[in-house]
Amino acid sequence: MEEVVAELVTEATGRGVSICQATNEVTITGYAKTLTTAQVACDTVEVVLGQIAAEMQIPPLAAPVVEPLAEEDWATAWQHYYHPLRIGRRLVIKPRWEAWPPEDGSLTAHCDDIVIELDPQMAFGTGTHPCTQLCLEATETLVATGDIVADVGCGSGILSIAAARLGAKQVVAVDNDPVAAEIAAQNVKHNGVGGQVRVVIAEGLSGIPEDFNLIVANINPATISSLARELASHLLPGGHLVASGIVVEQADDQTAALTRAGLVDIHTETRQDWICLIGRQSDC
Ligand SMILES: C[S@@+](CC[C@H](N)C(=O)[O-])C[C@H]1O[C@@H](n2cnc3c(N)ncnc32)[C@H](O)[C@@H]1O
Which residues line ligand 1 (CB under 6 A)? Predict the structure, then answer.
């Protein structure tokens, strides 16, 4: 019943829902702007749930309830849950408003740390998502001093800044969302890597003249498949493509797409349910 109820609540509130699963029950929460709207949505959902239970001859589901929420600045509430984190061997992602090392002693600073200060605002790329972490680790492993790197779907600019700080001499950060590109440009400037990183608004690598030692693309499976040939064609001999935004179940399809694009030695790194694929352009 989970999806049916979630759909009902979505329709009744006109907004997204959250679905929370415990061992023996599922709680579906919808959000409304006013108590009146919430109550109307609740009543509607209750009537339909009653009809479904009667038709299916099952016990009625728990009646929906309305709970008022405390006023909060939702635009910045997420910042309370975003703290410095270590990724890979030397990378530290530090929200711009947090201290480094943290005052609570939860992490310690090392002299060779590469600290990236971020304010992701509305862009994807805080460093907390497994795909971003896999891409950061692959970037740390693969970037060599003097490399030319592309970050396709740069979001907050997190991977581009990491590549530049790890020694890349030139990084092209691309996003097709102008808001993300603007946020990436701000983060690039704040981290002092504006001389190395060029932020571009584009679809994939269209209109980008360079070829690269490393291309990182943390987007989604459909886009990775459709861009695979274009990305591979922008790799220098022996260059690597790191592709992510992919769940474990899609590993075979995505590996096939990179193979069709001509990449070799394709392997997978996994974190939770997510993977990144790493493939190489042949040496000649
Ligand atoms: C999952 S976020 C990745 C952000 C960041 N690179 C990271 O690893 O956390 C994907 C980004 O790709 C961008 N994007 C989606 N399709 C794209 C395309 N065809 N060309 C360029 N950027 C694209 C989105 O706007 C979004 O900012």
Answer: 123-125, 132, 135, 152-155, 158-159, 174-177, 180, 203-204, 218-219, 223, 245
